[in-house]
Every structure is written in C-alpha cells, then in structure tokens.
Here is the input.
Amino acid sequence: MASGQHALSLHAGRGRRIGAALAFSVALVALIAGALWRYAATLPPLDLTQAKLRSTVILDRKGQLLRPFATADGRWRLPVTADAIDPRYLAMLKAYEDRRFDSHPGIDPAATARAAWQWLAHRRIVSGGSTLSMQVARLVEPRAERSLAAKLRQMVRAVELERTLGKSGVLNLYLALAPYGGPVEGVRAASLAYFGREPARLSFAESALLVALPQSPEARRPDRFAANARRARDRVLDIAAARGVLTDTEAQAAKAEPVPSTRKHFPMLAAHAAEQAHAADPEARAQHLTLDARLQASLEALAAERAAATGPALSAAILALDNRTGAVLAHVGSAGYLDVARAGAVDATQAVRSPGSALKPFIYALAFENGLAHPETLLDDRPARFAASYAPENFDMGYRGTVTARVALQQSLNLPAVDLLDAVGAARFVARLRGAGATILLPRDTAPGLPVALGGLGITLTDLARLYAGLARGGSVPALARRLDGPPAAPEPERRVADPVAAWYVADILRGAPPPENALPGRISFKTGTSYGYRDAWAVGFDARVTIAVWIGRPDGASVPGLVGRTHAAPILFDAFARLGGGEPEALPRPRDALVVATAALPPPLRHIRRDTPKTFAATLGVPLKIAYPPDGARVDLGLSEGAQARLALKALGGQPPLTWMVDGLPVAEAMRRQSEWSPEGAGFARISVMDAAGASDSVLVRLE
Here is the structure.
C-alpha cells in the first residue's frame, strides 16, 4: 500500500514539473514573440537589392552555361533555383539544417525555446536554433557579432523573408548566397568549382559536402583543408542516415569517395563570343546566344588539337553559321583562350588577313552573272602578262592549257581567275564584295588591281564566312545573329553577292573540288586559300544547312613555311562538318533557270574566252558595245504586277555581230540581233547582258514591274 502511494506521489510530482516546464516554455515563447514584435518596429525596411545580385552568365541556345562572369566585387554567385538542384541534396540539407523548414513560419518554436532555455541556464548562447530562413537573414544582412540582439534581428528578418518570398523564394536565396570558401557563393558555383559540373545530379558524398561547407566555409575548404572537409562531410552523412535520407550502407559507400582537393576552372566555352556579348550589354545578368554548346566544345577541341599538331605559336579559328537564319552556331576565336604561347586571347575570326585564293569563287560568280562565262566555258591556263607588268603563276608553277571554268575553279588555277577578273573589272569586283557587306581593306593609296584575285586584299574570317553563306542562300548574304534574347535588330536591306543561278553554278563546281586526303568527295562545296608567304591557311565550305570557315596561322602574321590551305585548313573543315551531326550534308537545290549543258551546246560567245580578244568592253571594230535599252538601274513598268503578259524590248549599240542576249545568265532564244525582245515571267530584278562575236560584253540591272 505504502509503495503504491509513493509511486502515485512520484507520478504526480513528475506531472507537475512537466506542466510547469510546459507553462514556462509557452510563456517564454510568448515573451520572445512579444519582444520580436516590439523589436521589429525599430528595424529599417528589409532591403534585398544586394542579395539579389548575381554573376552574369552567358548561355547557349538551349540554356547551357557557356561562361560566367564574376560580380563587380569579384564574387562567383551564379543564378540558381531549387528545381535545378539534385533532390537528394535538398533532402539532406533540410534533414541536417532545418527538419521543419516546410512547416514553420521562419522561426522553429521548439528550437527557439530550446535555445532560449540553454541561454538562461548557461548565461550564453549554446545553440542558436537557427532555421534556414534565419541563416538566409544572416546572409542578407551579415553581422559579425553573436549577441541576443543579432539573433532577434535574424528572427524578425526570417519571418519577413518568408512573408515576402515564400518558402521557395527563401530556399532559392539560400542556394544562391550560402558561402563555400573564398569568392565562391551558392551551391551552383560550388558544384562547378569543386566537381566541375552543374548540381542537377550529385552523389550522396557530393551532396553532403555541399551541405557541410557553409557551416565553416574557410576552415573546411576542400582545396585547402581536405581533412576538415572530409570530417564535416561524414558527419552530415551520419545525421542524414539517422534521419532516413539514406541507408547506412549508402552512407558508408559515400564516405569512401574522395574529397576534391583542388578548385576547378569555371566553364569558359566560347570565351571570345561571351566576352564580346558581355561588353556589348554589361547590365544583362543572363544572355542567351545562338551558339550550340555541344558543337562549340567539339570545335574548340578540334582547333586546339590541330594547331598543336601543326606547330608552336600557331592558332586556329572556326566559325559555323546557320545558312537559313544567319545564326552563329560556333565561334572558336583561337586554339585556346588561356594559351599565352598561341596568343589565345586574340580573336582570329575578327582579324584582317589575306585570303589567298579563297575569293576566287566570287570572281567566277560575277563572270557567270554578267554573261561573260559559264561553268563549261573554255579558259586558257597558259603563261600571260596583264597590264604590261603583272605575270601571275599557278601555285604549283605548272599550266594545264585549255580547261573549262569548272576545272579551273576546282583546281584553283590562278591564270583563268585573273583572266576573268580582268574581264569583269577589279574595281567592280571589290565593289560587289563591299556591297554584300564585307569589309575589304586594300593597301594604302592603291586602287583595286588584278592581284586581288590571288589575295591582294584584307578580309576577316567572319566576313568570308558570310559571303560563302550567301552562295548557299542563292546569293543573298545573311546578317549575322549572335543573340537569341536581345532586342530585335533593325531590318537591313538585302545584300547580294551573286544572282541565284550564278551562286548555284559556283556551289555546284565547288562540290566537285577534290577533297583532302582520306576525306569523301562530293559532300560539301568548299574552297581553300593560302596567303602570300605561307602566313594564312583558309578553308570555307557549305551545304544547304551550314557554312563553316576555318583559318590557321600565327596570330602575329609571321610566315609558317609549308602552311597550305589544302593540307592544313581543309582537313579541319571536313572534320568540323563530320562533327555537326544531323545527317548527311545536303546539296543545294538546282534553280529552274540553270543551264546545264556541255561546252559544245553553249552559245558561241560563251564557249571560249581567248587571251587574244580585247579585255575591255569594246569590239574590234572600234565602236564600244553598249546596251542602249533598257538603261542600267531603270524601273520598267510592264504591268507585270497585275498579271499582264508583256515583252521587254532589248537594244544594243556597237559591237561585232552576231550578238548574244542573256538574262540572269541564260541566253534569250533567237535573240542574235541588235534589237530583240524578251518575255519576263514576273516582276522583279533582272540582269540583262549582251555579248558580241569578239567577246566584248555589257550588262545592266533593271527592275521590272
């Protein structure tokens, strides 16, 4: 009986103590809440301006990170949200730091009461009872002291943050601001710095390390104090296992993983393009470029590999364009941005260099367009002297005799190219390139001359790529697009480098050019170039979808003996096309008006261009051949816009009959007289040319309405 009464007495006493403790806790929480309410009224408004500052990031067309830039004060704080983080990390973070994060209002009452009781009992802060929201408050308003006032401020700010941003907003702020040692802030920057990849997929060991580091970021930095980092990581793994985030077996396996001992470089894909984009719009926190990160990385590796194999101090540049849109798909400015020995910081896509023979296709296009030649026209490849003193030679010092224009361009013969340039006019040729949007630099105080056919001018790889993309687009040169999310560009007038038929003639010829060793023929239309003194090697190619331009040489312009476009740049070009993906290269569709015949079926004046004919637009009779009607640049109203059927009168003066009239490179049937007619199929621009029996010609461009 006595023992039973004693047990009841003990039970009652324990109940009274528990009740007293509960009442005290409730009173304490009420006291704290009241203190917080009064303290909150004394605080200035919450300012998140600095907390929301992020590093500028340059992204590819799919949102993949190309290159980040540090903030103005040198911190790496990359934008990040919880949905881009491995769920295992988030689960481990909450289990270790704040198990009731999803349910409390910013302050955990139980943890707060425990911390307050410990403070009263020990007269000092034993445990802070900090929630993730309170840690974010400390990061938003950093204060060095550990005092009751500082703790109260954190609690007030935590509640404000939750009311202002919600749970997801508070969590995102933590993920972006948590310190990881040195200038690295936020889980995304830390994952890139220590693991070299985005935090979308992390192992248990990696997740635990990222949870542990913010508690003491400088003392636990794995690149300086790997042992401390390992101990902290393993403690997180133990607690996470105890709280059911992972099994004991998984925790033990995670402990066996090594801790990274060095910091990795942040991504630096398309370093030159990213730098230019950032300089053009420094206020934009994120820019989406048109680049394809996968292709960019592959071509950067290709450029570095081939430049290293070619020789010391050499660099390489590659530019890939989408023919339809003009979008830049890859921009490789050098063989390695950080390679000082190869002057990697120099963007060779923007450097003005001599193109060698790379501009020859545009001479042929102009000759085709003006009715001076056809792909099957016979040209003479024999020693000759032009303008009394200019006597070019072929690259191999040999001559082929009489060849078609097709063969001459495919074999990059110098004499036929100079001959055609002499016929169309060097000044006219350079004007055409400039009119197409290319910046052409000539030697100071000199007029365009015949040497421009073989590289006697300066052009950038970017402009060369645009001109070739123009051939792939039927002669219309694209305006380059580099950014997906920028303000819409002002509309530009159409720039043409050739008429559609002439462009297709050139593309068809270049598709049959002999490929480099071990490459398949007939896959792409391409041309190479080698500048005087073996300073620059070029190769540019295209199919219906993509144009790729390649340059290799020394950034300082020094000579590199043996550096030749065909043997050094062309293999890079073909390898670059092989890395594109998306199926086989596509040939350009043949225009309806293209004349595909053998030499013998051409009109007589187009069958052969001879050196013994005058190189001016005058016939041997002394009376210049000239189109009298329609005049150059005229707008002729034939009622075509209303669907009327009409004929355009053609009239020429001078020249030696019979005459051959051509429209857009095609002969006009039964038009062999000085006066003739032609029936247009519709409104638009038309290039009208006439050629006489001696090879003299004239040409006009008119608009029919």
